[in-house]
Amino acid sequence: MEQKPSGSKSIPIRHSVDGLTPYLTDKPDDREVRARLCFNENLYGPSPAAVKAIVQSALTVHFYPDPGGWELREALSRKHGVPAEQIILGNGADGLISLISNTFLNPEDEVLFCEPTFPIYRSSARIAMGTPRGIPLDAACRFDLEGLLKAMTPKTRLVYVCNPNNPTGTILDPEVIEAFLKKIPEETLVILDEAYVDFMDAEMVPPVTSWIEKGYPVISLRTFSKAYGLAGMRLGYALAAREIIENLYKAREPFCVSALAVKAGAGALSDTGHYRKVTEGIRRERQGLQDALKKRGLSVIPSQANFIFFDLGMDAEGICRRLAEYGILIRCSPSWKMPTWARVSVGIPEANRLFLRALDAVLDDMTK
Ligand SMILES: Cc1ncc(COP(=O)(O)O)c(C=O)c1O
Fold it and tell me: Given CB 3.0 to 4.6 Å as the disulfide criterion, which of 128, 167, 206, 283 pairs with 174?
């Protein structure tokens, strides 16, 4: 007898994926957005050199990209002073986090991090059938490295250190990180997520390439989405010892980085003037925004990134919703378990002014 098609509802999915929440996939509403300060994007925009490179290479997109992305890896090799063989490109830092999980995790291997932090560490570990485990940040909202060491077990394979941490914007002293790396057991890999490294005070930037050279089990994650203003291109890279990079290539989709992304990245790297304008502008605006929030009586965690985490002292979700009515988008999240806190990206001066004006109007209204 013929069976009636049952539809696709009864196809079982991997248990570890069941229960994950899709990331903000609702269709955006039609409301006018006046300042999009919810994704830590770079409102200064991409370098004109990157845009030119994208436009020029658009005519040849009928060819697959070079899977090695050599043009960009060689430029990155010159920037960081490491051989291109110690660099891998990815479909954003997000793509690299998934790749790391897919390369190094066997079922039930543990992945450790502090929380709140970047949520993809947890979800990518689960998708790869690992066991994610978050411990709290320390009292200053920084990654608690002592706590991570104590939480490690023989099953711990990956440990994330987000520096600066998203959403808190906090960093750790490089000496503290190095002392931590010295205590990491064999067969455990530390992932130093440096997505926001370009906005840090120079003297606090970890000397990660020298740590790799010394043989510490560390991999550094970088992205072109922030300081280089290429979030829409999806381009990131990792720096690590040659063997780690070789293993990552085994699990990587061959063409996961588009030809346009490689060209855009190389163009962006060549435009040091634009990079300086962006990073200096954001540092200046960050200070101004922090001061402005404090002047309004709000607690602010000093940030080393292109966003600020601050305490509204009342239900942040309600305030985010009210701000959205003014076309101002900032972020708060139940997963942070800090219901009065919000994160605002540091934009260009006009966007930051619009945010502060709308915040004043909303807070005025709420306290009436
Ligand atoms: C800490 C952190 N790591 C990685 C990423 C992902 O960056 P990409 O846009 O390169 O995927 C982000 C993005 O916001 C982030 O905040």
Answer: 206
Among residues 189, 176, 9, the alpha carbon closest in space to that of 104 is found at 189
Strands (E) in the chain, as ranges, are: 35-36, 87-90, 110-115, 131-136, 156-162, 189-193, 218-223, 236-239, 299-301, 307-311, 328-329, 341-345
The residue type at 176: V
- Separation of alpha carbons 57 and 76, rounded Å: 20
DSSP structure class, residue 313: S
* 69 and 185 together in one domain: yes
C-alpha of residue 231 to centroid of ligand 1, in Å: 9
Domains held by the chain: number: 2
User: What is the per-residue pLDDT across 316-332, written as a single tens digit (0 to 9) for each?
Assistant: 999 999 999 999 999 99
Pair (148, 266) in one structural domain: yes
What pLDDT does residue 29 have? 77
Q: Average pLDDT of the chain?
A: 96
Contact in structure between 191 and 165 (CB atoms under 8 Å): no
Q: Is the dihedral of CA 340, 159, 107, 240 positive or negative?
A: positive
Closest ligand 1 atom to Cα of 224: 10
**Closest ligand 1 atom number to CA of residue 90:** 10
Domain that holds residue 278: 35-45+273-363
Task: Write out residues with Cβ below 6 Å of ligand 1.
Answer: 40, 92-94, 118, 162, 166, 193, 195, 223, 225, 231, 236
Domain limit, last residue, from 218, 240, 270: 270
The answer to whether 90 and 248 have CB atoms below 8 angstroms apart is no
- Domain harbouring 261, CATH code: 3.40.640.10
pTM beyond 0.90: the answer is yes
Mind listing the pLDDT tens digit for each residue in 277-311? 999 999 999 999 999 999 999 999 999 999 999 99
Enumerate the β-bridge partners of residue 162. Answer: 193
Answer yes or no: is 322 within a domain.
yes
Give the mean pLDDT of 245-263.
97
Angle between helices 259-270 and 70-80 in degrees, nearest 10: 30
The three-class DSSP label of residue 296 is coil
How many Å lie between the centroid of ligand 1 and the Cα of residue 273? 23
Contact 364, 48 (CB under 8 A): no
| Average pLDDT score over residue span 250-274 | 98
